């Protein structure tokens, strides 16, 4: 069971978080070429993201993570899988403090913990999509 | 402006998922069993799939702007609000059931995201 989890659930979670860290880090290091209006500076930023190999790689990692997550959905029950979304949140918050050096205050930790609790409660819902196909 | 860009990111993500769900759902009306390839072709050719692609393109752009403007530890958890939006939209458009677990979970996620918004 643990082996199956490591094989199907760990890769999408790690790929998504790692991809987001790389994307955020390279956007942080991006310097706008000249002082310009907000709109054109955002277009420049988008052009940078879609032309830089590192940001393209990070986008591919996030998208691959999403596809692998769909694969995991076919192997496990959704109610078992959903709490792992909270693992993703925790990894992102701790990682952005440790790797990206962001300041995470108490409000943010409590807010994230509440969201994680909410996700776990939603996953306890007994409703199954397949049981309600009346239309 | 800050609020608008976060709202646009959440709404574009909600409608991406809703459109793809609508594209996949169309197939349930099929009477006889069909192959996985035909099924995939039907999903990709449906108009909801193209609408989903448009919304996901908008989502990528707004997400990049969000990453520029905010901390990752703030904006990534903030997007959990889209789960609440998806459940409400699913209730309205697909007549999905909302039981007490989902309503309590939605309420807790909303309170958590209010605290997150206070943390900036």
What is the fold's blueprint, element by element?
The complex is a heterodimer of chains A (135) and B (120).
Chain A: H1 2-8, H2 10-28, H3 38-51, H4 53-75, H5 78-81, H6 83-98, H7 106-123
Chain B: H1 2-25, H2 36-45, H3 47-69, H4 72-78, H5 81-94, H6 100-118
What does this structure look like?
With 135 residues, chain A is mainly alpha-helical. Chain A has one domain. Chain A is 75% helix and 0% strand. Chain A has helices spanning 2-8, 10-28, 38-51, 53-75, 78-81, 83-98, 106-123. In chain A, α6 (83-98) packs antiparallel against α7. Chain A is globular and about 55 Å long. In chain A, 27% of the residues are buried. With 120 residues, chain B is mainly α. Chain B has one domain. Chain B has helices at residues 2-25, 36-45, 47-69, 72-78, 81-94, 100-118. In chain B, α1 packs antiparallel against α3 and α5 (81-94) packs antiparallel against α6. Chain B is flat and about 55 Å long. Chain B starts with a helix and ends with a helix. At the A-B interface, α2, α3, α6 and α7 of A face α3, α4 and α6 of B.
Distance between the termini of chain A: 36 Å
Beta fraction of the residues of chain A? under 5%
The largest pleated sheet of chain B is described as: none
Give the overall pLDDT of chain A as a whole number.
85
Number of helices of chain A: 7
- Please compute the radius of gyration of chain A using only Cα atoms: 18 Å
- Tally of alpha and pi helices of chain B: 6
DSSP strand count of chain B: 0
């Amino acid at each position: 069971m643990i082996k199956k989890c490591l094989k199907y659930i760990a890769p999408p979670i790690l790929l998504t978080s790692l991809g987001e860290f790389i994307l955020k880090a390279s956007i942080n290091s991006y310097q706008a070429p000249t002082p310009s209006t907000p709109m054109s500076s955002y277009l420049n930023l988008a052009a940078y993201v879609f032309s830089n190999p590192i940001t393209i790689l990070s986008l591919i990692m996030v998208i691959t993570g999403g596809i692998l997550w769909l694969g995991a959905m076919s192997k496990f029950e959704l109610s078992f899988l959903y709490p792992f979304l909270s693992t993703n949140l925790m990894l992102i918050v701790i990682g952005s403090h440790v790797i990206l050096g962001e300041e995470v205050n108490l409000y943010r930790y409590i807010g994230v913990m509440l969201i994680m609790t909410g996700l776990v409660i939603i996953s306890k819902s007994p409703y199954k999509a397949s049981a309600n196909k009346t239309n | 402006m800050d609020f608008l860009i976060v709202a646009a990111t959440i709404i574009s993500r909600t409608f991406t998922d809703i459109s793809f769900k609508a594209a996949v759902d169309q197939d349930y009306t099929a009477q006889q069993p069909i192959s996985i390839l035909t099924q995939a072709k039907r999903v990709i050719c449906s108009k909801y799939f193209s609408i989903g692609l448009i919304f996901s393109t908008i989502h990528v752009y707004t997400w990049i702007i969000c990453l520029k403007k905010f901390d990752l530890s703030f904006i990534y958890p903030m997007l959990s609000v889209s789960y609440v939006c998806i459940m409400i939209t699913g209730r309205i458009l697909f007549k999905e059931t909302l039981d007490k677990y989902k309503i309590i979970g939605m309420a807790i996620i909303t309170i958590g995201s209010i605290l997150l918004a206070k943390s900036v």
